[in-house]
Amino acid sequence: MTYSPKSVSSYNARREPPPTAGLPLQLSDWLPASAYLESALAEFIGVGEALVSCSGTAALVAALEALMARAPERLDVIVPAYTCPLVPLAIAHCGLTTVLCDIEPETFNFDLDALERLCGANTLAVIPTHYGGRVSAVLPAVEIAHAAGAWVIEDAAQSLGAKIDGCSVGLAGDIGFFSLAVGKGLTLFEGGVLVSKTPALLAECRARLFHQYHPPHWRQRLRGYVWDWQRTFELLAYTVVYRPALLRWVYARPVRKALAHNDLIDAAGDDFSRDIPLHRVGSIRKTIGYHALKRLPQWLHQLRQQGQERYHRLLQLEGIHVYGDHLQQTMAEAIATTEASTHTEIQAEGAWPFIMILMPSNKARDWLIERSWGAGLGTSLMFVHAMPDYEAYRDIIADAAPNDFPGAREIASRMVVISNSPWMTDVRFEALCSLIRKAISVTKAS
Ligand SMILES: *Cc1c(COP(=O)(O)O)cnc(C)c1O
User: Fold this and answer.
1) What residues contact residue 233 under an 8 Å CB cut-off, 6+ apart?
2) Strand, coil or helix: what is 173?
3) Which of 14, 193, 322, 388 has the maximum number of C-beta atoms within 10 A of its C-beta?
4) Could you give the CA distance from residue 372 to residue 7 in angstroms, rounded to a whole number?
């Protein structure tokens, strides 16, 4: 892949839209607050209690540790073969084994036959995942996992605010977690949220997170304070530079540099450290999150309108698949068959940090990405590879044959994500639509 964004220049490429629609912060968010982030998050999500961790990964570690205490003999955790590398890293951190399961390209749902084969007496947990604010089917995975005596941890890292049938994602399994990392909507620069409807599991997770906040050794505690201060400064920097005129310096330039070196993994931010920081989140960052959360419903509403409009616009481009909220029939069917209820229609109301599309081929995808990523058109890749195809994570992922995980590899080879930031203007969006059309016709002809 050779990177040549200069070939598109009919709009102002200097004002780079961010790859995702992160909620901007205001200086007034740094003023004291009269209530707690945890209780505001609990209310927003619709649960009695929400726990705040230093990252989504840290929440996952706490969830896995809580389950390990219940079934120490179970050592496998089943995850989608296309996911954030931090998920297998968290599993490895806990001394557990990642087992990959294929997913369906157009819905991200688990291949249920494969899941059924993989789930057994050694399975500790299954991790269905919601991608980019879209809602995946969790209940079929719950049924299969529970039948095998395993638990379900719902990875809603990218989907805070997404709802199914009026109820937040993250609550259909045994434990759910969200990410408050930069770029994932509401942010503490790094942070996470953990929820569970099962009081005993929640108590166990709370104890694990207490341990992360207050490690036994003073040196670890000190390191925790240093981490939190670093994140607080990073959050201050985010407050200041997260605006269109400055993003080209902090986002676009590093991305272009990585792409010029053909380093897609660096450009996508997929190069994660093995060392998972586990520490406290201080009250300054929580206060900022508390203030910003008050603006989140309005922000999500605005993004949903723009996202749905553009979703329909993209549907007019022939040859691509666009991920929307209407694909939830599978979930509606699952609910109808597992519960003898009177559910007739399940309404998904996703969050729209970005819009995901599948190009018709890997060739068309690469053609588009080569000309658009970092060039002010709002495109990027979510995860560069399916999990078995990252050189850097070979040691924690079992070898896969070339024709294993066809669904996950299909997604990795054809997917493009399009920023749904309000700074992704109509002019940019239309320029991108033309380029998508061109990518399809040029690569079809050759
Ligand atoms: C970002 C992400 C995570 C990890 O969340 P962090 O807050 O970055 O640790 C886990 N799963 C998915 C699908 C993600 O996108």
Assistant:
1) none
2) coil
3) 193
4) 9
* Angstrom distance (rounded) from CA 196 to CA 219: 31
Residue pointed to by tokens 């220049």: 9
- Token representation of residue 32: 């004291």
Residue 88, helix vs strand vs coil: helix
Residue in the structure block whose two tokens are 């044959």: 401
- Do residues 345 and 332 make contact, with C-beta atoms less than 8 angstroms apart? yes
Any idea which residue has 């230093």 for tokens?
54
pTM for the model: 0.94
- State the closest ligand 1 atom to the C-alpha of 129, by its place in the atom list counted from 1: 13
349: alpha, beta or left, given left = phi > 0 and alpha = psi -120 to 50? beta
pLDDT at 289 over 60: yes
Mean pLDDT lowest among 7-11, 219-223, 264-268: 7-11
User: CA 321 to CA 343: how far, in whole Å?
Assistant: 28
- pLDDT tens digits along 123-133: 999 999 999 99
DSSP assignment of 16-60, as one string? PPPSS-PPPP-GGGGS--SS-HHHHHHHHHTSS--EEESSHHHHH
- Average pLDDT of the chain, as a whole number: 92
> Over the stretch 217-248, which tens digit does the pLDDT of each residue have?
999 999 999 999 999 999 999 999 998 888 88
Convert the pLDDT of each residue in 150-167 to its tens digit: 999 999 999 999 999 889
Q: What are 176's strand-pairing partners?
A: 154, 195
Q: State whether residue 163 is helix, strand or coil.
A: strand
Tokens of 60: 């996952």
CA of 330 to the centre of ligand 1 (A): 25
Closest of 213, 214, 194 to residue 205, by C-alpha: 194
Report the nearest atom of ligand 1 relative to the CA of 382: 15
In contact, 4 and 260? CB cutoff 8 Å = no
Residues counted in the chain: 446
Strand partners, 99: 78
* Signed CA dihedral, 327, 332, 333, 335: sign only: positive
Say how many Å lie between the CA of residue 274 and the centre of ligand 1.
14
Q: What pLDDT score does 16 carry?
A: 83
Tokens of 326: 């209407």
Residue with structure tokens 């809603």? 156
Give the pocket of ligand 1 (CB within 6 Å). 55-57, 83-84, 86-87, 129, 155, 157-158, 179, 181, 192
Dist. CA 60 → ligand 1 center (Å): 9
Backbone angles phi, psi at 206, to 5 degrees: -60, -40
